[in-house]
Amino acid sequence: MNALIVSPDTETRAVIQRLCARRTPPIVVTKEVPPMPGGDGGVALAVPGLIFFDARGDAAMALKSLEQLVTRYPKAMILLLAPTHSPELLIAAMRLGVREVVAAPLNLLELEQAIDRVSERARSAAREEGKILSVVSSKGGSGATFIATNLAYALATIGQKKTLLIDLNLQFGDAAIFLSDARPAMTMSDLCAEIGRLDEQLLESSLLNIEPNLGVLAASPSPDPDDSVRPDHVAAILALAKKHYDYVLLDVGRQVNAVTIRALDSSDLIMPVLQQSLPFLRNGQRMLEMYSTLGYRRENIRQILNRQDEDSPITVGDMERGLGHRIAFQIPNNFDVASASINQGEPVLKLARSSNLSKGLIEIVRSLTDAPVPGAKSIIRRLFVRNAAMTD
Ligand SMILES: Nc1ncnc2c1ncn2[C@@H]1O[C@H](COP(=O)(O)OP(=O)(O)OP(=O)(O)O)[C@@H](O)[C@H]1O
Ligand SMILES: [Mg+2]
Predict the structure, then answer these.
(1) Cα of 274 to ligand 1 centre, how many Å?
(2) Of the N and C termini of the chain, which has fewer Cβ atoms inside 10 Å?
(3) Would the pTM of this model clear 0.90, i.e. be above it?
């Protein structure tokens, strides 16, 4: 996100600039200027999502300058630095749409927290609704949880997307332990028990945080005792989640029930996971028939072939012909890395960045996000450039 800093004080501008650079992802300050009479000094190089406006000093001039900025950048969120003793200024600023004020003299912690609040609001306002991806197991042990968890991690880290993973295996869901050995304080059933007060804060506080931009809503460690997770709860959680996350991944597992069907109804993409064997092929065909009965469009179904094996007697082509549907993605067979990752609760990308499993995951991220993804080539090029520089 781009930011514009308007302050007469060099030291204040430097402090804000430093705090912005430290955010994840960083806030890029495209311009810093002192406030000008008439406000023209606020012309930024890029349209700012966030404006830091220092209103200390001449209140009338500050308001005039602020008004001009608001007219020029109506969508920007504004963080006002203001003297506490001027309620008139604050009221006028509020009327102009300012929703976040930090009182002078500046307290660094307060300023930092305000920046986080206002930048998150700016991001939500700018963000298109997130995408919901359902990873479904065609048959027990397909690797759906392994792929859902590792893809969520890859989207958050390689793809730099704000990502939420929800474990919809209501009987003994195990997604959280694929990514961390920490115990989640709250689970899906706990959140559904509080559904009446569902909002962004409650959702956030129910998550196990894996990375700053990756949270997991874990399944209850015991089978959902009182059927507390209902289809309308899932629909409400997903509707909220897509407003605040770029990607919402669901580990749907292999159960077909009212809850999982409601989740699939809300999904942008359904990703069944299968392997090269006849039982998987048969179940895969049945699932495609069921999706067609439920009215899901074929182009929204992306088959993932897991444990892909060149030497298997059933080839990828056989699977595609049998299914009558393309295999969109392939994840190779690599038992050593997969089981080490699961047993240690460490995502594959963290544990074995250069493994063939990581490459398969990165390829899915690239295809879903269209993001340029750092690959082996760029590392070689960097080394090459560095060596070339040394010999120059
Ligand atoms: N690409 C892979 N290569 C090798 N082994 C794999 C791969 N993917 C998954 N596995 C192995 O398969 C096992 C089952 O994986 P996982 O628990 O993700 O499947 P699932 O479909 O979620 O199963 P369930 O139906 O029990 O929920 C894991 O223990 C893992 O060791
Ligand atoms: Mg599973």
Answers:
(1) 10
(2) C
(3) no
User: Would you say domain 131-374 falls under CATH 1.20.272.10?
Assistant: no
| Ligand 2 centroid from CA 313, angstroms | 26
**Domain boundary assignment for the chain:** 2-126, 131-374
Architecture of domain 2-126: 3-Layer(aba) Sandwich (3.40)
Of 122-131, 200-209, 369-378, least confident by mean pLDDT is: 369-378
Residues paired with 181 in a beta bridge? none
Rounded average pLDDT over 114-121: 88
CA of 54 to the centre of ligand 1 (A): 55
**CB within 8 Å of 143: residues ≥ 6 apart:** 137, 273, 275, 306, 307, 331, 338
Q: Do the domains spanning 2-126 and 131-374 agree at the CATH topology level?
A: yes
- Cβ of 307 below 6 Å from ligand 1: yes
Give the model's pLDDT for residue 383. Answer: 43
3-45 pLDDT tens trace: 999 988 889 999 999 999 998 888 888 776 766 554 445 455 5
Query: 9 near 33, Cβ under 8 Å?
Result: no
Q: Which of 146, 274, 283, 355 to mutate to test the pocket of ligand 1 (most atoms within 8 A of CB)?
A: 146
Q: Is the dihedral of CA 309, 312, 314, 315 positive or negative?
A: positive
Pick the more confident residue, 182 or 85: 182
**For position 389, what pLDDT does the model report?**
38
